[in-house]
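for the recovery benchmark. tokens below, seq after
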């Protein structure tokens, strides 16, 4: 049988220990009595008691006695000195304190119920002179065998003290320090029984309970207004392909992956799927995991647009840990029917978040992974087995649920139980759900100096590497020389001078420093592009990191008012920002990621009334001019050519002008046929 001595430390530090989980919860579970001297009576005391008590289901046999001090005003103290009735003054003071409580205070319903049942009894203490305060922070636990422990803590009775401040709580066991335990216990009993000199104790428990009950009724009325309103199915008509996706998910026991082209409404389809499942259940926990912070706000906005509420968990949110535990605890105790949590992958995979899932997840838990290809990172794969136990239902959505690594892709698809619905870009364009587009590959080539530097860099990597897969290092060389070339900038300027510079457009730049073919300069590539485009009259804005809701709204309004016609981006616009008015994309920099190709294209294909055909200008860099008399391909060229060809083929296959481009694509393939065959043969041999 557990006792209050079990696994106790001599001292708990708030910066190292979780006092709620490591101390209060296990000790209270074993206790039949809890005596507490708690400082002020306040909303903070209600909150901290709630945190200590909510996880304990042993209330039937425990008695909790609390001694605290009212927060008396100067006039209250004067009235006490004048001999006015203590009880009336305290009642008025405590009622005023309760009136100040937040109507959404999660602790009120539980605390009220425990007071009404007689489990909690609160006594208030003032000095006979009305000055000074009762500020002791001590407590005693007794178990069913009358074993006792006492504690003295430096913390005030606030959540910030328990969670954020550096505080200490020292533990005394009666088996080791009976004198200290007996002393604290005796002091409590003296004060409780109104036997301590110069202190006056009063019992107004019933007054407190009645007042809090009134607030509870307001809370319940307020909840009726805000709960149960989340609905997509009653507010919009889904497209036929979205309905088909949801039906496939239902038929696969509410598991599976949706492979849907960027811009075809993956978010709405996922939320409608969630609602379909919720209709079949009494209660549901939904955890939505996204790759970056700006997508947290986007998903949250969508839920709120349809009448729902979310708990957003990431580094930008304050107090999310407390909110998450409170809401999930309510769901587990049948005090709520639905909780929707939105979090980033980084937060989701943290030990803290996983501990919360282990402790609070209910049987009917749904995992939704947005941009699901990002959900196969190594740290996540390691916890797939545990996530399988937690989540009975799973849904992944992405335009490309595939990884470069085939093993990671296989594990991802197995975890979500297969791709159960696909809706291609070609289907979406054909059925008028996405805009038509034209693709223009602009073929460039290295200068002699760039070609020499590139081949030398790749050759050195190949010689030093145990495999022909200094892949990431080769990509760095490629990015430095090919992506950030000043030649691409000058070609972009040439194109824009031929086009209307006011066309709404996105320009994708390199993350590195730009180079002029001989030297790598200190100025970043994106800054160089910004200066050059500003000089020819582009009204531009640089997007360097995640786009929050306010910034996104500003961008949309600026495009609408014609105050903005150009966005410069590196990667952050690959996913998450829907700019329907943008018609042109200029690609100066790219990687070999198929996901990146697809998401970038999707940014400019959103449907808008009277929108012209979208256009992609892709500045393709080859090692050499294939029409040159000096053309001689080398194996060192293969990685770059393979990467550029892959992107060209992907962009071209769904374009309106694909026949025009097939000639140049085929010509490049023929010119580099031998080195590409050698490169691919080596790649196959490594598998």
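predicted aa per position
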């Amino acid at each position: 049988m557990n006792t209050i001595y079990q696994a106790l430390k001599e001292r708990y530090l708030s910066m190292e220990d979780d006092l709620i989980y490591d101390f209060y919860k296990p000790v209270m579970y074993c206790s039949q009595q809890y005596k507490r001297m708690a400082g002020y009576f306040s909303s903070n005391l209600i909150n901290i008691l709630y945190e200590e008590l909510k996880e304990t289901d042993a209330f039937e046999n425990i008695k909790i006695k609390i001694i605290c001090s009212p927060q008396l005003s100067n006039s209250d103290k004067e009235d006490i000195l004048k001999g006015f009735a203590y009880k009336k003054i305290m009642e008025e003071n405590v009622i005023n304190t309760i009136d100040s409580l937040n109507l959404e205070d999660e602790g009120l319903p539980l605390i009220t119920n425990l007071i009404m049942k007689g489990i909690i009894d609160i006594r208030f203490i003032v000095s006979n002179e009305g000055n000074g305060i009762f500020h002791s922070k001590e407590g005693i636990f007794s178990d069913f065998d009358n074993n006792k422990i006492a504690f003295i803590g430096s913390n005030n009775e606030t959540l910030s003290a328990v969670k954020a401040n550096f505080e200490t709580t020292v533990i005394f066991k009666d088996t080791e320090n009976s004198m200290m335990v007996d002393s604290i216990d005796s002091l409590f009993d003296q004060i409780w029984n109104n036997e301590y000199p110069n202190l006056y104790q009063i019992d107004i428990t019933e007054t407190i309970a009645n007042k809090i009950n009134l607030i509870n009724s307001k809370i319940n009325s307020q909840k009726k207004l805000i709960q149960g309103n989340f609905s997509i199915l009653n507010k919009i008509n889904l497209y036929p392909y979205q309905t088909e996706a949801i039906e496939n998910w239902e038929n696969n026991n509410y598991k599976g992956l949706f492979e849907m082209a960027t811009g075809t409404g993956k978010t709405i389809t996922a939320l409608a799927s969630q609602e379909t499942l919720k209709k079949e259940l009494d209660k549901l926990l939904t955890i939505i995991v996204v790759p970056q912070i700006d997508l947290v706000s986007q998903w949250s906005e969508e839920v709120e647009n349809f009448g729902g509420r979310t708990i957003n968990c990431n580094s930008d949110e304050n107090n999310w840990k407390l909110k998450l535990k409170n809401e999930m605890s309510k769901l587990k105790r049948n005090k709520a029917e639905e909780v929707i949590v939105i979090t980033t992958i980084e937060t989701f995979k943290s030990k803290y978040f996983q501990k919360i899932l282990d402790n609070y997840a209910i049987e009917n838990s749904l995992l939704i992974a947005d941009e699901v290809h990002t959900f196969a990172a190594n740290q996540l794969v390691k916890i797939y087995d545990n996530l399988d136990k937690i989540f009975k239902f799973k849904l992944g959505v992405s335009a490309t649920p595939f990884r470069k690594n085939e093993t990671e892709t296989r594990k991802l698809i197995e975890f979500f139980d297969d791709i159960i619905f696909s809706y291609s870009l070609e289907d979406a364009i054909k059925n008028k759900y996405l805009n038509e587009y034209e693709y223009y590959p602009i073929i460039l080539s290295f200068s002699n100096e760039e070609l020499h530097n590139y081949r030398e860099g790749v050759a050195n990597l190949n010689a030093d590497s145990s495999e022909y897969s200094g892949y990431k290092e080769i990509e760095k060389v490629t990015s430095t020389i090919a992506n950030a070339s000043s030649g691409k900038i000058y070609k972009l300027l040439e194109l824009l001078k031929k086009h209307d510079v006011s066309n709404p457009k996105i320009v994708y730049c390199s993350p590195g420093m730009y180079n002029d073919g001989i030297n790598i300069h200190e100025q970043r590539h994106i800054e160089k592009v910004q200066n050059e485009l500003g000089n020819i009259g582009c009204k531009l804005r640089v997007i360097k990191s995640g786009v929050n809701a306010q910034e996104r709204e500003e961008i949309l309004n600026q495009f609408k008012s014609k105050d903005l016609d150009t966005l410069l981006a590196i990667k952050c616009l690959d996913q998450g920002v829907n700019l329907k008015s943008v018609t042109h994309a200029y690609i100066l920099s790219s990687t070999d990621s198929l996901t990146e190709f697809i998401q970038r294209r999707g940014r400019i294909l959103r449907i808008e009334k009277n929108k012209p055909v979208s256009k992609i200008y892709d500045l393709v860099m080859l090692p050499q001019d294939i029409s040159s008399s000096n053309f001689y391909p080398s194996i060192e060229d293969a990685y770059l050519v393979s990467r550029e060809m892959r992107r060209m083929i992907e962009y071209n296959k769904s374009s309106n002008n694909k026949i025009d481009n097939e000639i140049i694509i085929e010509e490049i393939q023929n010119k580099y046929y031998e080195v590409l065959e050698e490169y691919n043969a080596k790649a196959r041999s490594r598998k």
